[in-house]
Design a protein that fits this description.
Blueprint: H1 2-6, E1 9-10, E2 16-17, H2 19-25, E3 28-32, E4 39-43, H3 57-63, H4 75-80, E5 84-86, E6 92-94, H5 95-100
Antiparallel strand pairs: 1-2, 3-4, 3-5, 5-6
Amino acid sequence: MKDVATQGMKIVSGKNVDNKSLNNLVKAVIINFNDARGDIAVTNDNFGTTEQHMDFTEGRKAAGLNPMQIVFSGVETEAMFDGRYMDKNDNICYFKDLLSK
């Protein structure tokens, strides 16, 4: 399983988006628990780096979330549930748009 996760993700449209390119695209993921807190932006600690995986450890702390809280479960899963992210220009984008490019 670990080998599969590190090889990058094959997107349905045929475009390959690997974890390194996601670190250049996704500044933060936006989650919403449908409660009084509303939208919560959880920053990607590895944004703008060539690290292999996105990391939200410090972002979860800053947002006041449990350290074990899952905030990102993959592009395909996020696209199915209309997951949103913040790009490098602080624009709100949908993961499903990554699949259609």
